[in-house]
Design brief:
By secondary structure, the protein is α/β, with parallel strands linked by helices. It contains 5 helices and 8 strands; from the N terminus they run βββαβαβαββαβα. The mean pLDDT is 97.
């Protein structure tokens, strides 16, 4: 089981859920960008599972600036998110057990954020993307949508999508796939029939699809072990 820790961003506290493998390391790390459910049972489960596989998993609380907002997702701002990602990288690098490479992973809104982080930060050697919506929009004071930043990605990408999803739709996924190909970025996308948005999320049984969840997670672990060592 992980635990909550704290770091500073722009002079304020930001919480992070941190799950660390047993042993002394050094271990590679994965920064997890959560879905709209924030640091809920699903997100903690993904972090704990990654730790069990030998990765330090760190989940920043991207909603920390808006503790009283009814819908903090509507308040998110790309420059603030980038600051949170930078602080997460610093927090990971400060871990005595960390050593080697670092990846970024995200679900839903976190998939979009993971693309943003992978494009902006050289620290990330790989990216894992789950059903990333709103790739063609900016948030808050952002000037460039993540889709237009894909050239900045420096490592391989793996992505997972449901063919019944509306955001991203299958056409959106094709567009992202084609752009990564045009840019010469190593990537592999996996699409699942009979699955829509949030198919990994067991907290929402109406959306959860067991076969797609198990297959995508197994592929995620294999990808991270290959990319990070």
């Amino acid at each position: 089981m992980g635990k909550m820790e704290t770091t500073k961003v722009d002079g304020a506290n930001m919480g992070l859920y941190v799950a660390t493998p047993s042993g002394t390391g050094p271990f590679p790390a994965v920064a997890i960008m959560y879905h709209r459910g924030a640091i809920d049972d699903f997100t903690k489960d993904r972090a704990d599972r990654l730790a069990a596989e030998g990765f330090i998993a760190v989940v920043p609380d991207l909603f920390h600036r808006y503790p009283d907002a009814e819908n903090p997702l509507e308040r998110l701002d790309d420059p603030e998110i980038e600051a949170d990602i930078k602080a997460t990288i610093v927090h990971i690098k400060g871990k005595g057990a960390f050593g080697g490479k670092m990846a970024i992973l995200g679900h839903c809104m976190g998939g979009r954020v993971a693309f943003l982080g992978a494009a902006r930060e050289q620290a990330f050697s790989a990216a894992v993307i789950y059903y990333c919506g709103n790739m063609f929009k900016t948030w808050g004071k952002g000037k460039t949508p993540p889709f237009e930043l894909l050239a900045g990605i420096r490592g391989p990408v793996i992505g997972f999508f449901g063919n019944d999803d509306k955001n991203p739709s299958p056409d959106d996924v094709k567009k992202i796939d084609a752009e990564l190909t045009r840019l010469g970025k190593a990537h592999e996308f996996h699409r699942y029939d009979g699955a829509g948005h949030a198919f990994q999320n067991f907290v929402r049984p109406e959306q959860y699809r067991e076969a797609a969840e198990k297959d995508s997670w197994a592929k995620t672990i294999a990808f991270l072990k290959s990319a990070l060592g």
